[in-house]
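S1.2 Input.
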Amino acid sequence: MRTKSELPECPVATTVGLIGSKWKLLIIRNLLVRPWRFNELKKNLEGISQKVLTDSLRSMEEDGLITRTVYPEVPPRVEYALSELGETLRPILNAMQEWGTNYKESL
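S1.3 Output.
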């Protein structure tokens, strides 16, 4: 996790820095529904490269937004889910969904 001194002074800039990329928002959108495995996310997020997905998941895990659970099976099964902190993003994404719906209807 980043330290307070590593974050921008502006709270909006902090939020954008944590979830502001297109792919991070779409990953969070999926994780709001249920835990996902890496390959499921890759297939669902059309156009994302393996490197970008890996980097995004690692970054969000380091920031405390998601959890990575490795199950002791053969072959190993890994699932990504929103952490307790990540769950607090739900109202933000719900508001974005509502705004997008309203915008599309106004056209």
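S1.4 Remarks. Helices lie at 11-19, 22-31, 38-44, 50-62, 84-87, 90-106.
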